[in-house]
């Protein structure tokens, strides 16, 4: 089947054609069927009579514009309308070539423009540049406004003339546009490039905003429940507690303070042992799962032993606290001042949240178990994802922001929940001397060690995230 270019040549054998090939010498060749040099071609043009029409067929049959655009339908219509208006072509074909770039259906972006027009016959070199710039401008006008090189479509011809007039280089009048094969326009970054590209720091900024909002909410809740609310709070009910409830809560928070002290001491001791530091610094997903196995295993061991087995229970508790200290030992690389500030901030956060929990209605935060479980899943997945994506990338920074700021907000909410849960458990757990139907109850004693473990983990998670935030803020100051 003969294409329109062959038909046009056969109908007009003496027609003079000027086209612009691209090859390593960057030469412009003008061909005529009479075998004479084209008039008005200027310096740098030459003719090869031996190649004839075959050379013309092989290299110079059509003008191709590969343009990255926003869509197939509207862009193809825009290109067709403007080319028909400017060149009155005898043949105009616009073919989508997005399939060569693995673009999914419905998101086509690449087109090939093939055009035959009598206005291309015998064009002097400057007019040929006008033609190329017309097609270049068409490809750019189809893009979003931020990438336009002309003010508007109404000033299209003026901008083309200005570009053609001002864009020439050297004495030959050849524009650098002719050095490239086709017309390429850069589009915006893909989703993959945005996620894996360098971060702008926005995730950390949004994290600080979320943390500030949570802090304002906490202060507002404390003021509301302490000054305005008329519902009965834990603080008001404490005046009616029996003595055994007070003893249970006192022993619970005594074990909490002792566990934190043991953890700090074991962390300092582990930081001075190179063998333990090598084990705790093992990175990657395997190191994460090994750390989780140690924490969960020692915690389950401690919970499984009855409080009446005094020695075994306390040894398991000390083992769990010591393992947590060894896991946190690499934090010493942040420096003593950073860790001390993080510890003081943690103490302030824990004190404020505890005050909020005891001034709120007695079961206000006990209804948050479902949302807290979902939030814990999000933070856990983000923590695993942070091992695969560098925090310098946009995606890695987002995951790290969720781990730090989202985790801080999450475990602060967990502290509110666990505080009220511990108080409620101390109130309703039966005593051994209580009787049911005249028979003594055969139940284990109240276990203050198990009761404080959830608050203990909340405090440590808050401290870890405060240390990370303090360390990052210190690095930015440097």
UniProtKB/TrEMBL annotation:
Entry coiled-coil feature ranges: none
Subcellular location per the Swiss-Prot or TrEMBL entry: Membrane
One of the protein's GO biological processes: translation
One Gene Ontology CC term in the entry: ribosome
Main location: membrane
Keywords: Membrane, Ribonucleoprotein, Ribosomal protein, Transmembrane, Transmembrane helix
Transmembrane region(s): 204-228, 249-270, 282-302, 314-336, 342-360, 372-389, 395-417
Record's bilayer topology term: Multi-pass membrane protein
Pfam families: Bax1-I, BolA, Ribosomal_L15e
The family this protein is said to belong to: Belongs to the eukaryotic ribosomal protein eL15 family.
Protein name stated in the entry: Ribosomal protein L15
